[in-house]
Design brief:
By secondary structure, the protein is α+β, with helices and mostly antiparallel strands. The chain has 20 helices and 20 strands. An eight-stranded antiparallel sheet has the order 15-11-12-13-17-9-8-19, with no helix packed on it. A four-stranded antiparallel sheet has the order 1-2-4-3, with helices on both faces.
């Protein structure tokens, strides 16, 4: 995979960097907050080699890449100079979505950057358990002490990690957020909590308000709430403070307000919420373990699709911190194994060489804990394997929870995480894995699936269809009449590679003879660029068309262009849309060649163009979008 080219193509197809409010990434997907979702060509992005799936979830435009996502993200950063974590303008145009979607998007954004540290420390925790269980080293040995430091450091100081990540998400000062984490982790509180357990100290007080001794190590909720509140308090104080005093007195006042309030109210409240969540999960799994495990095992892949699986991550971490074990992670493991097994079965059954390659690589990734490539690239694409995986993981989840299997650390649920499940019930976990894999694979074979055509077969069919369509005088689809008068230029001859390579869709280009653009069909205006150089239309039959007057003319910032319609307005064929000054645009150094693109080309069997004509007048047929 050429990550640089893929990043360039994706950026072009989401509407270029001007349309990107911010972009982040998780383990498998790019997460865009776009200023205008209508400018993104979902179908074309999904057709790119290297892209598994595209979806709008939780107010984000998500592009699922798979294991190469971090490299593609770095290339995007070079192209767009994106700094979503610190740029105050990055939220312009950001979609808020509904409350639940927004909540899970926030959790995902906070936890995603620190997952590598958490997963690595969790695996070391499992290795440590293996070392002591098998008596490879005495528990009081130096190597065990060092492994304990490695395994516990991230979880013990988790509030510091979350403080930085939350500060970036809430657009507030990272070092003030770290100061709040330091307040929660101050030795007086930790030692005081130990003294209380031994019947000693009773806590502190401030102006008659109690400051309880609570050990906040490994906690999640208190620091996230504190940093969220910090983002508002700091903005308010900063706005009220004279600029000459701001650099010294603003942080002083913030700390004097936030740390005491955090210790009196936010910390205890968050701690009790965390304890309540841990107790609630324990109660549910102890009283309805089979049912709870079965439902969660089957639902987990569905939560991954909508990005809500991140909402369970704090609960699992909290359970390990409070209880020393967690019921959720074994179920997550069953869900991942179900997707891996179904993809493996597809690999064994499919006759499509392309699908066989995808299924092989994605099943390996899923067995290691990364399921999106298997889910989107194989199982969901073929539908029935996905259903088989849901059934298998549901049965596996019910089995392991019914027998009380737990995890002693938070890990990425894959085969490499098996050491954290060591103990007397480890055999039940292995049986659960075998059951999940066997059922998922067996049902995939039993249900079967319709093999998809290879890319080569599709290309041959498309070429044959194009020949037939050219011979037909009538067709089912949409005619696009010319919005300009001028010389016809094949799209492949346009100097801009984004258009020439068809990344935005199929179409044609015109070198205009006058400065008038008219409506090519009856329809409506779906987008009118602020720079006035481009307009998007949708016909009454659903065809979506982009008319881009000139190349790189976005740099003119609207000079020499005059729109005569508004976004959302209905138009009739021949209505005047835009006028522009050809000579002044050329004098400014910009070509006036105008690409005319069917942006939803994938909805049509073929896009025919009037390339055989040298000249075209307004109103003459230019493109024909042919249905099957």
């Amino acid at each position: 995979m050429d990550q640089q080219k893929l990043a360039q193509d994706i950026l072009s197809l989401v509407g270029d960097k001007e349309n990107v409010g911010s972009v982040t990434h998780c383990y498998t997907r790019l997460r865009f907050n776009l200023k205008n979702d209508d400018l993104a060509n979902k179908e074309k992005i999904e057709a790119l080699d290297g892209v598994i799936r595209v979806q709008n979830q939780s107010g984000q435009f998500q592009v699922v890449i798979g294991n190469e996502v971090e490299k593609v993200y770095k290339e995007l950063g070079k192209l767009g100079n994106f700094d979503s974590e610190t740029n105050d303008d990055s939220t312009k145009g950001e979609k808020k979505g509904n409350f639940i979607g927004r909540f899970f998007e926030i959790i995902a954004s906070i936890f995603t950057p620190i997952i590598p540290a958490i997963a690595g420390a969790g695996l070391v925790k499992g290795i440590l358990g293996l070392v002591t269980t098998l008596n490879w080293a005495p528990e009081d040995s130096d190597i065990v002490a060092i492994l304990n430091i490695v395994a516990d450091a991230v979880f013990y100081f988790l509030p510091f990690f979350l403080a930085v990540s939350a500060a970036r998400k809430f657009k507030t000062n990272e070092f003030l957020a770290l100061a709040l984490a330091g307040g929660l982790m101050y030795p007086t509180l930790i030692e005081g909590e130990k003294a209380i357990a031994e019947g000693g100290a009773e806590g502190l007080s401030l102006f008659g308000l109690p400051v309880p001794f609570i050990n906040y190590s490994s906690t999640v909720i208190p620091i996230i709430i504190s940093v969220w509140l910090l983002s508002y308090v700091s903005k308010w104080i900063d706005a009220k403070m004279p600029s000459a005093l701001r650099i010294i007195f603003t942080p002083t006042i913030i700390l004097l307000i936030m740390i005491p309030f955090q210790l009196i109210a936010i910390g205890p409240l968050g701690s009790y919420l965390g304890l309540g969540l841990a107790d609630g999960v324990t109660w549910l799994f102890e009283r309805a373990g089979i049912l709870a495990g079965g439902i969660l095992g089957a639902a987990r892949p569905l939560l991954v699709i909508v990005g809500m699986h991140y909402g369970l991550m704090p609960i699992a971490i909290q359970n390990v911190a409070v209880l020393g074990y967690d019921y959720l992670i074994p179920v997550f493991l069953m869900a991942n194994m179900g997707q891996a097994a179904a993809a493996l079965a597809v690999f064994m059954k499919t006759k499509n060489k392309d699908m066989k390659t995808i299924a092989a690589s994605s099943s390996i990734s899923a067995f290691l804990g990364i399921t999106e490539p298997a889910m989107y690239g194989v199982n969901l694409r073929l539908k029935k394997p996905f259903i088989a995986a849901l059934i298998g993981s549901g049965i596996g989840g019910a089995f392991v929870t019914g027998l009380g299997v737990t995890s002693s650390a938070f890990v990425l649920p894959g085969l490499t995480s098996l050491p954290v499940f060591g103990g007397s019930k480890f055999i039940y976990l292995i049986l659960g894995l075998l059951i999940t894999i066997a059922i998922s694979m067996l049902l995939t074979f039993v249900f079967g699936f319709k093999d998809i055509e290879s890319k080569k077969e599709k290309t041959e069919d498309k070429e044959l269809s194009a020949v037939k369509n050219e011979q037909q005088s009538t067709f089912e689809g949409q005619t696009v009449n010319s919005p300009l008068e001028g010389e016809i230029i094949p799209l492949k001859n346009v100097s801009d590679p984004t258009f020439a390579k068809g990344l935005m869709g199929e179409g044609i280009a015109i070198e205009p003879m006058n400065g008038k653009v008219v409506a090519p069909f009856d329809g409506s205006i779906v987008s009118l660029f602020q720079t006035k150089h481009a307009i998007g239309l949708r016909s009454e039959n659903g065809l979506e068309l982009l008319i881009h007057v000139g190349l790189d003319t976005v740099n003119l910032e609207g000079k020499y262009y005059a729109p005569h319609v508004e976004q959302g307005q209905d138009v009739k064929q021949g209505d005047l849309l835009i006028t522009f000054d050809i000579e002044k645009i050329k004098d400014a150094g910009y070509p006036t060649v105008t690409p005319i693109i069917v942006t939803n080309s994938s909805d049509y069997h073929e896009i025919l163009s009037n390339e055989q004509s040298k000249q075209v007048k307004q109103g003459e047929w230019l493109l024909k979008a042919v249905k099957d």
